[in-house]
């Protein structure tokens, strides 16, 4: 090996390293666009069965079918916004989120009721809380600041929403658009296998995301019924938020449990309700309903979704989600199942001769 060959090798390696760095930097700078495309792809997968139904059963024109589907999505979005804005406004008033002093006073009232209840049962909870320093670490003034930051992000959200809807329209109108973009990077000789993989992935993920919609809907209905039965203010808002958090596997239900507990306790702020006779029993029954909803979800909804949509065993899914969460955090847990499903389809198409692949992809 002469010096010229070594120099060419070093130059080539340097060029590859620089090119890779530039590509990664470019992807980092346009990460918001990548998110828009990913969200639009999910929406198109959810809307795909609707478009196919309109085209095949009702004989709609392709463009008209897509327009009707997009109008349905927009109508649902407008309905949610028109329903939730007044309710969120009322919830904000009841929690006095824009007035940190009043909110602090209300929390202190609940705190006093809680201390009196536990003192009646010979439990010195006040001393325990003081020793832990929990209240001193919580800054109530941060709540209005958080709301201001949320409001300032509405403009960016509007731009993102328009971009997602625009991209989703063309993904639905031309179902091959996304596929053709990926196929441009597929080496020659692998086009047929890649197309088969892509079509299989679309079918599986469409069923998966539609299953998630039904999973959230079931939880939303159960939560709403429970909260309405026990007279919790703004039951629909609380139920929707808690159901939506269930999209994050394992972590989401824990957060939604805390959220429902907190909002159930504070729903009667300003009414000076008795903690022992009114607030505690009501909250206990609400949390019991929450547990029942989670049991229905864990033992009925999720097994059906995983077994019928992505053809994977619940234990297999559990391990994949946990590993993805360790490696990539919350985002990893959310995208774990779709990514794992896509990988399984590709492995079956290209490496089906291996025994371990046959075992993993059995049933696909």
Task: Name the features.
364 residues
Summary of the model, kept short:
This protein is mainly α and 364 residues long. The protein has helices at residues 3-29, 31-56, 62-95, 100-120, 125-132, 134-137, 142-152, 154-173, 176-183, 191-229, 235-245, 251-266, 275-308, 314-350, 355-360. The longest helix is centred in the middle third of the chain and has 39 residues, at 191-229.
Could you characterize what this model shows?
With 364 residues, the protein is mainly alpha-helical. Helices cover 83% and strands 0% of the residues. It has two domains: 1-107 and 136-185, no CATH class; 189-364, no CATH class. The protein has helices spanning 3-29, 31-56, 62-95, 100-120, 125-132, 134-137, 142-152, 154-173, 176-183, 191-229, 235-245, 251-266, 275-308, 314-350, 355-360. The protein is globular, with a radius of gyration of 26 Å. The relative contact order is 0.08.
Q: Which stretches are low in confidence, meaning pLDDT under 50 for 5 or more residues running?
A: 95-99
* Succession of helices and strands: HHHHHHHHHHHHHHH
What radius of gyration results from the CA coordinates?
Answer: 26 Å
Distance between the termini: 50 Å
Number of domains: 2
Overall morphology: globular
Which secondary-structure class do the elements indicate? Answer: mainly alpha
How much of the sequence lies in strands comes to under 5%
Instruction: Return the average pLDDT rounded to an integer.
Output: 76
- Please summarize the sheet with the most strands: none
Helix content, binned percent: over 70%
Figure out the total of helices: 15
**Number of E strands:** 0
């Amino acid at each position: 090996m002469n010096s010229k060959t070594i120099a060419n090798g070093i130059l080539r390696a340097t060029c590859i390293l620089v090119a890779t760095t530039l590509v990664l930097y470019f992807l980092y700078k346009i990460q918001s666009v990548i998110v828009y495309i990913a969200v639009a792809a999910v929406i198109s997968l959810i809307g795909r069965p609707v478009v196919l139904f309109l085209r095949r059963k009702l004989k709609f024109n392709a463009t008209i079918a897509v327009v009707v589907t997009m109008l349905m999505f927009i109508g649902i979005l407008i309905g949610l916004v028109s329903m939730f804005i007044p309710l969120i406004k009322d919830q904000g008033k009841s929690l006095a989120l824009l007035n940190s002093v009043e909110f602090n006073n209300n929390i202190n009232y609940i705190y006093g009721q809680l201390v009196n209840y536990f003192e009646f049962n010979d439990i010195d909870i006040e001393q325990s809380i003081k020793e832990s320093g929990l209240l001193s670490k919580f800054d109530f003034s941060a709540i209005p600041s958080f709301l201001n930051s949320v409001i300032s992000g509405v403009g960016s959200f509007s731009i993102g929403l328009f971009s997602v809807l625009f991209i989703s329209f063309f993904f639905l109108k031309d179902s091959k658009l996304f596929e053709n973009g990926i196929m441009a990077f597929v080496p020659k000789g692998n086009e047929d296998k890649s197309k088969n993989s892509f079509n299989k992935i679309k079918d599986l993920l469409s069923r998966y995301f539609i299953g998630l919609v039904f999973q959230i809907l079931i939880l939303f209905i159960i939560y709403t019924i429970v909260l309405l039965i026990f007279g919790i203010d703004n039951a629909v808002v609380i139920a929707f938020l808690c159901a939506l958090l269930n999209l994050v596997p394992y972590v989401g239900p824990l957060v939604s449990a805390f959220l429902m507990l907190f909002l159930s306790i504070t729903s009667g702020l300003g009414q000076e309700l008795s903690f022992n006779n009114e607030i505690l029993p009501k909250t206990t029954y609400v949390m019991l309903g929450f547990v029942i909803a989670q049991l229905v979800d864990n033992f009925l909804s999720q097994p059906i979704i995983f077994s019928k949509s992505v053809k994977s065993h619940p234990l297999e899914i559990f391990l994949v989600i946990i590993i993805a969460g360790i490696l990539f955090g919350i985002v990893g847990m959310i995208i774990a199942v779709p990514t794992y499903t896509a990988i399984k389809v590709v492995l079956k198409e290209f490496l089906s001769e291996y025994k371990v692949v046959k075992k993993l992809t059995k049933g696909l």
